[in-house]
Structures are given as structure tokens and as C-alpha cells.
Amino acid sequence: MAYKAPRGTVDILPAQSGKWQELEQLLRTICANYNVKEIRTPIFEHTELFNRAVGDTTDVVSKEMYTFEDRKGRSMTLRPEGTAGIARAYVENKLYGMPEKLQKVYYMGPMFRYERPQNGRQREFHQFGVEMLGVESPYVDVECMLMAVTVVKALGLKNIQLHINTLGDQESRDAYREALQNHFQPVLNELCHDCQVRYEKNPLRILDCKVDKNHPMMKTAPKTIDYLTDNAKAHFEKVCALLDDLEIDYVVDPNLVRGLDYYSHTVFEIISDDPKLGAGSTVGGGGRYNGLVEELGGPQTPGVGFAFGMERLMIALGDDHKDEEGLDVYIMPLGSEAKDLAMQIMTMLRANGFTCDMDQCDRGLKGQFKSADRFHAHFSMIIGDEEVQKEVVNMKCNHTKEQVEVPLENIVEFIENHYEGDHDHE
Ligand code: HAM
């Protein structure tokens, strides 16, 4: 039987991993810039965590989770998103008791959702996310949005829009829930079975139903913004004012409700019109979640965060990535004695911090030069019988094409001197 990777998963091969590392490095640099520290939480958690945090009536929980029983019969789930696990870790490790009240963390890693795979949508995918816990302030909402915008700008993504909306506080959401029920009540029997359940349990979820999305009552549904308490309204107005002050472009999108239950107040999405992704594709999204930590048994703690789909960032980045820092030295031994010596030199060069490799296939010069080329080697080091006898190597600089004989004991000095005079090399 020929094995294939499971549907909706992909291998990231050596030819692509350089571009992934570049993306990860850039994200880590932005996090350092924003004083956000990394957190790493388990890839699987107790299923109940996601039911609680993300919500039973969301598509993510009710249709898309990879859930299994472990050997002791406990229900576990591969994480479909990062926020729930981080809120759990925050409570479990009592991060609310840290001297810094605002805890800012980021994460990168695989997430799992049983969705129909297509361009930019996989069953195993990767998210880069940020969570800021502990302070309820529109300034922190805006810090999150700024960070998300910084990411897309740093990646040079074009045709990007920041969409924002507010779901308000609990009181606003109760009033809105009632308004939605009144709105959909007359057409309830025209909606799909799921929506009829949502109507009772969580009418907000009707708005992101994939089956009923074209029902005429969807377009005329009440907007969250019309049901805000004074407090919720003031919070949102301050968010907008801060974005205006910072000259961050945004669109208030009253239909934006997001697909997870923990949100309150500000929600936002970064939407790309890049044709590579398909028009109107969401590259990232997030929002405030003031009830989540308490829901998971912690003290009342506000939070806000966002996550990007890293595959979507990679697609939007395109293929113009130049892979490879080249090797410093590619060693080309000719014959078995030369090979013994090559192994010694390679070990010594690596110990001195140079990136280095050698031919292990006993090929002729031509084949070895091809490898030196493929590895973008700065130097080719040729060692034949004569060189072994004379205790020298032949160093060919692949940029200047100069070839010099260098005594074994001078190799490191030779490379260092050469680099010092070469302004192209960093
Ligand atoms: P989300 O909107 O469910 O939010 O996912 C965030 C991003 O993950 C999406 O915008 C998309 O780019 C990417 N994504 C989601 N599903 C897939 C998939 N099947 N394949 C590829 N990419 C995908 C969250 O997960 C929240 N935890 C974000 C958040 C953090 N809110 C507050 N803090």
C-alpha cells in the first residue's frame, strides 16, 4: 500500500521550510518589538475545554473537532484554536497573580479542524496568535489591532482591510439576542435544522450559518451596534478614535460576528483581496473575550487577542522568496585519503562556526561542483592526493573564481581574512 498524508494535511519539505522559518523569524521579531513573550501549550486538551470556551453551538466545536478517547477513556481533542488553551494555562498557572497585570503572549503552531480542504484551508494548519490578558482597555484592543496590521505590512501584503465591529458587553448581548430571536421567529421553519437549534441556544450563530447565508432575513437582521449599553458604546467609540488618531484605516462592519462564542466588545478581521487567496479571504481575526477566563474557573479577567492563518500568510507572500543563506564551505574530496581529511576539516570548520558540508557520494569533480552550486557555497575546497601529501587544500572562491592553495593550519584564518575583505558577505 502506498501511504499518503491524510486529506487536508501537507508536508512542508526542505525546499519550503526556509520560507516558513523566515516568516516565523519576522513574527518573532515583531513580538519582541511589542514586548510579547512566547507561550507553548499542549496540542491536545480535554474536549470539555473547547466545548466550554469556544461554544457547543459553533461550527468549530459541533462539526470540526478531532476528538478521541485516550487509553483511559477520557475525551481529548486536538486543539482547533489557541485561545482556549492559553486561557486554561493562564488560570492553571495563576498568571493573573504575576506582578505585571497585563500578560502579553504569542504562539505559533499547528491547529486542527475537520473542514473541507481548499486553497488556504486545511485540516491541519498553523496559526500565529497573540493574547493580551488582564486589562480591560480600548488601548489594549488597539495595541492588538496595531500588531496585526504591523504583521501584514511587514509581510508586504497588498489589498488588505481591517474590519471591526463590537458585540458589546453581556447586557448588550442579551438585548441583541432577543432582537435576533424576534427577527427570525416568523421564518424559523424556513431555516435549516441547525439554525432552529441555534435559535433557541445561541441565535448569534445563525448569522454565520453557511446553509442559510442567502436567506433574505439575513440581510435585514438587526445589528449589534444598535443594542449597545452606554459603556459598551463608549468602549467601541474609544477604539475607533484611537485608530483614527494612529491613522490606521478600518471599516466598521456591522455583520462581523466571528465564529467563536467567547467574544465580547471589539471583534476584528484582516481581510485580503489578494487573488491568490480568493477574493475577500480572512487572513486573521480576533477580538476581546472578557468572560473567558472566569468561564474556565479563574478570576474575572479581561482578554483580547487575534490569530493569523500562517498558510494564508505564506500564500499571500508569494514565491519570490530567495532561499538559502549559502554554505561557507563545500568540501570536495577526491579519493579515500582525501575523504578522511575532509571529514576532519569539516568537523573543525563547523566547530569554528562555519556552515560546511562535503561530498559523501564519491563523485568526480563535475558532480561535486554542481552540489557546491546548489548549496550556494562561498568556497569550494578541493582535496586530491597531491593536496593530502602536501598538507594543503585548494580553496576556490565561487564569487571571484580565484583559486588558492592554503596550508591546513591556515584554513580558518584564510576564510576569515577573505570575508573581511568581502563586503557582500555578512
Ligand atoms: P479564527 O478566525 O477561527 O480565530 O482563526 C484565525 C485564522 O486562522 C483565520 O483567519 C484563518 O486565517 C486561519 N484558519 C482558520 N481555520 C483554518 C483552516 N482550516 N485552514 C487554514 N487556516 C485557517 C481563532 O482561532 C481565534 N482563536 C483568534 C483569536 C485569538 N481571538 C482572540 N484571540
UniProtKB/TrEMBL annotation:
<protein>
    <recommendedName>
        <fullName>Histidine--tRNA ligase</fullName>
        <ecNumber>6.1.1.21</ecNumber>
    </recommendedName>
</protein>
<dbReference type="Pfam" id="PF03129">
    <property type="entry name" value="HGTP_anticodon"/>
</dbReference>
<keyword id="KW-0547">Nucleotide-binding</keyword>
<dbReference type="InterPro" id="IPR033656">
    <property type="entry name" value="HisRS_anticodon"/>
</dbReference>
<dbReference type="InterPro" id="IPR004154">
    <property type="entry name" value="Anticodon-bd"/>
</dbReference>
<keyword id="KW-0030">Aminoacyl-tRNA synthetase</keyword>
<comment type="similarity">
    <text>Belongs to the class-II aminoacyl-tRNA synthetase family.</text>
</comment>
<feature type="domain" description="Aminoacyl-transfer RNA synthetases class-II family profile">
    <location>
        <begin position="1"/>
        <end position="333"/>
    </location>
</feature>
<dbReference type="InterPro" id="IPR006195">
    <property type="entry name" value="aa-tRNA-synth_II"/>
</dbReference>
<keyword id="KW-0067">ATP-binding</keyword>
<dbReference type="GO" id="GO:0004821">
    <property type="term" value="F:histidine-tRNA ligase activity"/>
</dbReference>
<keyword id="KW-0963">Cytoplasm</keyword>
<comment type="subunit">
    <text>Homodimer.</text>
</comment>
<dbReference type="InterPro" id="IPR004516">
    <property type="entry name" value="HisRS/HisZ"/>
</dbReference>
<keyword id="KW-0436">Ligase</keyword>
<dbReference type="Pfam" id="PF13393">
    <property type="entry name" value="tRNA-synt_His"/>
</dbReference>
<dbReference type="InterPro" id="IPR041715">
    <property type="entry name" value="HisRS-like_core"/>
</dbReference>
<dbReference type="InterPro" id="IPR036621">
    <property type="entry name" value="Anticodon-bd_dom_sf"/>
</dbReference>
<dbReference type="InterPro" id="IPR015807">
    <property type="entry name" value="His-tRNA-ligase"/>
</dbReference>
<dbReference type="InterPro" id="IPR045864">
    <property type="entry name" value="aa-tRNA-synth_II/BPL/LPL"/>
</dbReference>
<keyword id="KW-0648">Protein biosynthesis</keyword>
